[in-house]
Design brief:
The chain has 15 helices and 8 strands. By secondary structure, it is α/β, with parallel strands linked by helices. Strands 1, 2, 3, 4, 5, 6, 7 and 8 form an 8-stranded mixed sheet that branches.
């Protein structure tokens, strides 16, 4: 039975740069573009945007690194309603009056890259995980079921992280970042890929964006309200994916490999695009290659 390869990418804001740093090393080792090696792509939030860039635009890993460059991150994270460098009560109260960022900078960047392309223009099957706030259920937008949707719409919706960006309207649906239900979408990708390629053996490479294992002060948290939780990375807590990893490992076994680690010195906040933090994120991505190189190449070896 022929083997097909699934690439699953987590959400994680600016930490997506660690993911593409790892993919850059992998691409060099394979001596073939990631979009050629893999047969099916699925991602959530920033991971979905990277998947769309590869599957639709045929971006190689170097181009993907450029997509997540400091300049582009500055554009995506423009028009903040408060100074993210100042974790003050006044700044936090600003979040209660609307999303942290307007989405103009993000949409302008997506427009520059994807133009008028539709999901049906994708070179390989690709899925983006979102969440429908009205029907209260996950939504997987794909190149094979939602061919008429613009790539810009889909990328904007899957990355509409609550508190960071406004809810996105796609057709008659109101969608937000799928990370609140499936930040680690490996199993969702496996199920969707089986619809496209029945009677096929799959191998799944899942790449994360780092795990925040900093303890939360339990006693102190008992008195937190909305502001307290927002100041302690509430969305990051909602997007934790360790259980999804355990389920995928149990179901897929040796046909699954997860690339991830604790954040270490990387700031867990999704929007810290300071030069210092970006450098640490890149270092984390490089460390993943050092740790997982052999296992990754074994997973992707031709049967």
């Amino acid at each position: 039975m022929k083997t097909k390869y699934i690439l699953s990418l987590d959400g994680g804001g600016v930490r997506a740069l660690a993911t593409v740093t790892f993919l850059n090393s992998l691409e060099k080792a394979l001596e073939t573009p990631i979009y050629e090696k893999f047969d099916f792509f699925i991602g959530t939030s920033a991971g979905a945007v990277s998947c769309l860039a590869m599957a639709v635009n045929k971006m190689n890993s170097s181009e993907l690194i450029e997509f997540w460059s400091q300049e582009n991150l500055n554009q995506i994270l423009s028009d903040s309603i408060w100074d993210k460098r100042a974790n003050t009560l006044r700044s936090t109260l600003g979040l209660l009056q609307g999303s942290k960022y307007k989405d103009k900078g993000k949409i302008d960047l997506l427009t520059d890259y994807f133009k008028e392309k539709k999901m049906g223009d994708s070179y390989k099957p690709v899925c983006a995980v979102c969440y429908d706030v009205q029907s209260r259920k996950p939504v997987i937008l794909s190149s094979f079921k939602d061919k008429h949707l613009s790539v810009i719409e889909v990328a904007s919706a899957t990355s509409a992280a609550p508190t960071f960006y406004p809810t996105a309207k796609v057709g008659n649906r109101y969608l937000i970042d799928g990370a609140i239900v499936a930040n680690h979408p490996s199993l969702h990708g496996f199920i969707e890929a089986k619809k496209v390629y029945p009677d096929t053996n799959f191998k799944v490479l899942s790449v994360g964006t780092g795990l925040d294992r900093k303890p939360i002060p339990g006693e102190e948290s008992q008195s937190w309200g909305t502001i307290g939780w927002l100041r302690n990375n509430l969305f990051g807590l909602m997007a934790e994916s360790s259980l999804d990893h355990e389920l995928a490992e149990g179901i897929l076994g040796e046909n699954y490999l997860r690339i991830n680690s604790e954040l270490g010195d990387v700031n867990p906040e999704l929007d810290d695009n300071s030069e210092e933090n970006i450098e640490r994120i890149i270092d984390m991505g490089n460390s993943w290659w050092n740790i997982f190189e052999d296992r990754t190449l074994r997973l992707l070896s031709n049967d």
